[in-house]
Structure formats: C-alpha cells, structure tokens
Design a protein that fits this description.
With 303 residues, the protein is mostly beta strands. It has two helices and 18 strands. α1 (25-36) runs antiparallel to α2.
C-alpha cells in the first residue's frame, strides 16, 4: 500500500457547476472500467464509528477525526471479492470489555456451486463456536448479502453485484458538469433508477466523481422519490493508492437519514486494502457443523 492523499472532513461546499464540455457519460464509464479492469480480486477491511450526536438535519460541517479519537469503532468488517465468482463478507461487531465476540460470514462461491451464511460466537472459555449455518445453492449467481461494502458505496452495488459502469449504463443518468468538492475536481452526475430490492420504488442519486482519481465516487447523495428525508449522504474524505497505482477509498463519513428517527452520523476508515493477492479458498468452503448447530433451521445431530 502506498501513500494516502486527501483532505480532512470539511463543510461540503462546492463551487458553481461548469460546463462538462467534451466529457460525456461514455467517457466516464470508460475511465471507471479501466480502474475496474486493473484488478482481478480485492480485499479490504474497514471500521465504523458513530458520532455521539444525532441530528434532525443534514450534517455538512463534520468534526475533524482527531477531535473524536476517544470514540471507539463499533464494527470491523471485511470483504473479499474475485471476478471469477467469489464473494465473502464478514461482519463483526467490536465488543466492549467483558463481552464475548460474535460475527457472521456471508459467502458466495460460484466455482464451488454453493453459498452459505454462518454465524459464530465465542464460549465463556474463549473457544470459537459455529452457532447457525444456512446452506444454499448458487441460485441466480449473486452474493448472498446485500449489506453495503461501505468504503465502495456508490462504486459497487451488492444487491445486484454490479459495479459503477454497469449502474451508469442502466440508470437514467445526466452529466451536469464539473464541480469542485473538498478540493477535488469532480464530475457531477444525476441518476434516477429503480430500487434494486423494492419494485416500483425510484431513487435519485447525485454522484460527484473525482476526475483525478479514476472517476471514483467522492460523494453520493441518495434520496427516495418523491423527495423525502429517507436516504444517505456518503463522502470520501481521503483516497489512497494501492500497489499498481490504482486509487482506493481510505477514510470518509456517511449520514444515514430517516423519515422518523434522528440522523445517524458515522465515520469509517479502511485499515487494510489490497488487490491481486492470493486468496485463501478455504474461507469459501462451508464449515463443518458440530452437534447442536442450527443448520438450515434444524438442530444438527452429528454424523
């Protein structure tokens, strides 16, 4: 992993739009396709922390990270993906002192023609215990989990196993022009699309794509149509360069906006990231359940 380059959290102020000129949607798609074509697999680990204050309105002026070093992250998550049909998402909540760790793993193994979800916990003695195993067939050939791969929000859609070029090709998108955001020259694109998991529900996404960093998402503001409070505001404050020189998110924030509840303001940090490295395929094999494990809704009796 090489140098990290970016800016700290600042008010989300953008300069006036300028004409995009010769930059059209096809140019943007080709640039992101070049980035995507530069790796055959990736692995990233990230943590999330929730700011102590909740708000009833969008939060534009975020505190600097050093002002919240005392706020522990609440989760450590890992994603491994490969373009030949492997997808593993491990969601792990970070525990307080005295708590016993628990976590879950969602795996899609195309070559092995199996997908599964496994939930783990630790015993009072500290041993790892498989609690629940849900075995599935490969089915439609998509990941088992639609949970966001947060640092790549707006670049990868887990619900459809689709990358940004495919989304831009299928959604109703308009290139609105160049706009400076967080010190970066970005192309602003407005897209209207159907919700991947809810029929007849449309979303409007405003994407700011960093022109100097492979046209990756610098910010994506999502709203349900008609315009309501429900949505997300996702920002990448800092990028890094991985081996091979490709850009990748390093640190950012997300505001989860609700129709009824106060907004939740979170910060995330990528702690590990690498592309084109060897993959431990043993992690993509279903674990062997012990007696007493709940397997596909039934208690496993052994044998």
């Amino acid at each position: 992993m090489l140098a990290a380059i970016g800016v700290g959290p600042t008010p989300l102020q953008a300069r006036s739009l300028t004409d995009a000129g010769e930059v059209d949607l096809g140019t943007i798609i080709r640039r992101v396709e070049t980035w995507r074509g530069s790796f055959a697999n990736l692995r990233m680990v990230w943590t999330q922390a929730t700011l102590p204050t909740q708000t009833q309105a969008p939060l534009s002026d975020w505190p600097l990270p050093h002002e919240h070093v005392h706020i522990p992250p609440f989760s450590r998550d890992e994603w491994i993906w490969a373009d030949h049909g492997l997808d593993l998402l491990e969601l792990g909540g970070l525990t307080r002192k005295g708590d016993r760790p628990s976590w879950s793993v969602d795996v899609f193994n195309g070559p092995g023609r199996v997908s599964f979800r496994a939930s783990y916990a630790t015993t009072p003695e500290g041993a790892v215990q498989l609690r629940v195993l849900d075995l599935r067939g490969v089915g439609v050939g998509k990941p088992t989990s639609s949970f966001a791969r947060l640092p790549l929000h707006g670049v990868y859609w887990p619900g459809t196993a689709e990358w940004l070029p495919g989304f831009l090709s299928q959604a109703n998108c308009t290139v609105e022009g160049f706009e400076d955001l967080l010190g970066a020259r970005c192309v602003r694109v407005k897209c209207v699309s159907l919700h991947p998991n809810v029929a007849d529900v449309e979303w409007c996404d405003i994407l700011w794509l960093d022109w100097e960093r492979d046209c990756l998402v610098r910010r994506i503001l999502s709203r349900k149509i008609p315009q309501r409070r429900l949505g997300t505001d996702f920002v990448v404050d800092e990028f890094q360069q991985l081996d091979g020189g490709i850009w990748f998110p390093k640190r950012g924030r997300v505001q989860l906006q609700s129709d009824t509840e106060p907004y939740s303001n979170q910060m995330w940090t990528v702690t590990e990231a690498a592309v084109n490295q060897a993959i431990d395929r043993k992690r993509f094999q279903p674990p062997r359940p012990e007696p007493g494990t709940l397997v596909n809704g039934r208690v496993h009796g052994g044998g």
